[in-house]
Design goal:
heterodimer, A: seven-stranded mixed sheet, about 50% strand, B: three-stranded antiparallel sheet, about 45% strand
Chain lengths: ~110, ~110
């Protein structure tokens, strides 16, 4: 298994501000992903965090809005920039230790934008 | 494009009754399907994957390529099975596409 620590667990933010979410894994992993779960909806992949290079974003998500860093094999951050109430969601970090093995999830960050 | 459909948002059964959570998928390649579960106040975790062909906590799921389905079944529901269940499909790059989830409620 993988022990994933995601911070903060929840936050309430003012619109127009930015929030950075951290994901720390207890050991090196091959892949790290960021998902969003809007109220009443399913998990949607935002991007794949690539170590030492720019993240790979899914359709509908852009780097200016969701900048992602992954400086090493155990840590990644997701920033939600210039927030609006529509960004209120649960954001989840997911890791895959080796290719084609199980994906593990963090406990999520519940973000409310007011 | 790949898609996962879970038609039921909520499924309520009595303890001891059979359970079937439906999942259908759309994918042009060879699919790899999973069921994830989220118990109250816990993180999302893998329940089972189709390539393992195993039973976990009494649950089984068979991939039916003809019907493009991967329904989750258990012959006798238990109270501790109450949770949110997500069907997921893995495409290229180890990325997962999730269904909208089914809340299973097992009543006494």
């Amino acid at each position: 298994s993988a022990v994933i620590s995601q911070k903060p667990s929840r936050d309430i933010c003012q619109r127009g501000t930015s929030l950075t979410i951290q994901c720390q894994v207890d050991s090196q992993v091959t892949m790290m992903f960021w998902y969003r779960q809007q109220p009443g909806q399913s998990l949607t992949l935002i991007a794949t965090a690539n170590q030492g290079s720019e993240a790979t974003y899914e359709s509908g998500f852009v780097i200016d809005k969701f900048p992602i860093s992954r400086p090493n094999l155990t840590f990644s951050t997701l920033t939600v920039s210039n927030m609006s109430p529509e960004d209120s969601s649960i954001y989840l970090c997911s890791v895959v230790r080796r290719l084609n093995t199980e994906a593990f999830f963090g406990q999520g960050t519940r973000l409310t934008v007011v | 494009a790949q898609r996962v459909t879970q038609p039921e948002k909520l499924l309520s059964v009595f303890k001891g009754a059979p359970v079937e959570l439906k999942c259908n998928y759309s994918y042009s390649g060879s699919p790899e399907l999973f069921w994830y579960v989220q118990y109250s106040r816990q993180r999302l975790q893998l329940l089972l994957r189709h390539i393992s062909r195993e039973s976990i906590k009494g649950f089984t799921a068979d991939l039916n390529k003809g019907e493009t389905s991967f329904h989750l079944k258990k012959p006798f529901a238990q109270e501790e099975d109450s949770a949110m269940y997500y069907c997921a499909l893995k495409g290229g790059g180890n990325k997962l596409t999730f269904g909208t989830g089914t809340q299973l409620k097992v009543e006494l």
